[in-house]
């Protein structure tokens, strides 16, 4: 089966669905392809979403999908395995055999959190193992918080979470060194620094045990610093190249999500590693408007040539 549309959106998260709605409201035909792996699907709540504070992420996405479908957006639950340009169209071949042909592509495929290789971390990810103070900090305020040291960003996280609780411990783990000035700051703030690698995380939500070999420590929440890897395989297939970042890699964009691959736009975490739900949604709307403007200009040029 082949589906033809103005724009194909890859990813039905906050960015992709918002972009699809903006396009559909401009009377564009839109197909959204989604593999069903939302990054925040492991979390019970999304925060800093104006008017929907604390909403369950999966509920928010389901409601957004219903809104988009009300404007005629078609959703296909499948994965894109091949992306290519064929003359003036893009062709995306899906795992199930469907081909989607579109004039423009909006990549809103998000990112993958590559967690520290410590047994037990993934089991508690999104509940008692956290990374963002703005996403989950309020929920652990005043608690006994540990920070798993794995790089310079861990030091920044330690200071951010110290704002939320007077009981913060930095587990140096694989962090090579702590600058002297930072050590003085941590000491002044009452932050303990514990040496030794954490071998395992166990326990229950809200009561984690960190195994350091000869000793063990307990915390109520553990902060980690993932590496953020944008889902950029399709961008590479279309001729793009991911841009390195100290925290991972991403698709670099200009105003409105335009990329250096003509006809390809990007929004959300695939291009902004730090975007929370509201920011991702906003970037999707802006990208949708930019794509529509691009198509309007193309249609106007074509109309002149057709006279």
Question: Can you tell me about this structure?
Answer:
By secondary structure, the chain is α/β, with parallel strands linked by helices. It has 2 domains: 2-113 and 227-306, FAD/NAD(P)-binding domain (3-Layer(bba) Sandwich); 116-223, FAD/NAD(P)-binding domain (3-Layer(bba) Sandwich), CATH 3.50.50.60. It is 27% helix and 28% strand. The chain has 7 helices and 19 strands. It has helices spanning 14-24, 57-70, 133-136, 152-162, 180-188, 233-237, 277-306, and strands at 2-10, 30-34, 74-77, 80-86, 89-94, 99-107, 111-114, 129-130, 145-148, 168-171, 192-194, 200-204, 207-211, 216-219, 221-223, 227-230, 243-245, 248-250, 264-266. The strands form 4 sheets. Strands 1, 2, 3, 4, 5, 6 and 19 form a 7-stranded mixed beta sheet that branches. The longest helix has 30 residues, at 277-306. The model has no long low-confidence stretch (mean pLDDT 96).
Q: Tell me the structural class.
A: alpha/beta
Following the backbone from N to C, one meets helices and strands in this order, namely EHEHEEEEEEHEHEHEEEEEEHEEEH
Helix proportion of residues, in percent?
Answer: 25-40%
Q: Taking Cα atoms only, what radius of gyration do you get, to the nearest Å?
A: 22 Å
Average pLDDT number:
96
Here the CATH topology of the largest domain equals FAD/NAD(P)-binding domain
For the largest beta-sheet, the strand count, sense and barrel status come to: 7 strands, mixed
CATH C-level class of the largest domain is Alpha Beta
Gap between N and C termini, in Å?
34 Å
Beta-strand proportion: 25-35%
- So, CATH architecture of the largest domain? 3-Layer(bba) Sandwich
Number of helices: 7
Low-confidence stretches: none
CATH superfamily grouping of the largest domain? FAD/NAD(P)-binding domain
Question: How many extended strands?
Answer: 19
**What characteristic shape results from the CA principal axes?**
elongated
């Amino acid at each position: 089966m082949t589906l033809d549309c103005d724009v194909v959106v890859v990813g039905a998260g906050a960015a992709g669905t918002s972009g699809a709605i903006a396009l559909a409201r401009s009377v564009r035909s839109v197909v959204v392809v989604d593999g069903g792996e939302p990054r925040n699907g492991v979390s019970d709540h999304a925060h800093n979403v104006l008017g929907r504070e604390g909403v369950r992420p999966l509920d928010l996405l389901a409601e957004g999908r219903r809104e988009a479908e009300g404007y005629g957006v078609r959703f296909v639950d499948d994965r894109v395995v091949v992306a290519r340009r064929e003359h003036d169209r893009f062709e995306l071949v899906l795992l199930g055999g469907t081909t989607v042909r579109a004039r423009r592509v909006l990549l809103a495929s998000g990112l993958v959190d590559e967690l520290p290789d410590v047994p037990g971390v993934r089991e508690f990810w999104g509940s008692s193992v956290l990374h963002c103070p703005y996403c989950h900090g309020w929920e652990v305020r005043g608690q006994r918080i540990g920070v798993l040291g794995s790089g310079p960003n861990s030091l920044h996280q330690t200071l951010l979470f110290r704002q939320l609780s007077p009981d913060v411990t930095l587990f140096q783990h694989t962090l090579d060194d702590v600058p002297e000035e930072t050590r003085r700051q941590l000491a002044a703030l009452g932050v303990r620094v514990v040496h030794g690698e954490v071998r395992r995380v166990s326990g229950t939500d809200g009561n984690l045990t960190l195994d350091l070999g000869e000793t063990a420590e307990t915390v109520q929440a553990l902060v980690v610093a993932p590496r953020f890897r944008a889902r950029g395989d399709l961008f590479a297939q279309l001729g793009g190249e991911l841009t390195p970042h100290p925290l991972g890699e991403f698709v670099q964009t200009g105003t409105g999500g335009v990329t250096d691959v003509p006809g390809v736009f990007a929004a959300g975490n695939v291009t902004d590693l730090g975007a929370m739900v509201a920011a991702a949604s906003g970037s999707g709307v802006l990208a949708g408007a930019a794509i529509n403007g691009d198509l309007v200009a193309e249609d106007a040029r074509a109309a002149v040539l057709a006279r």
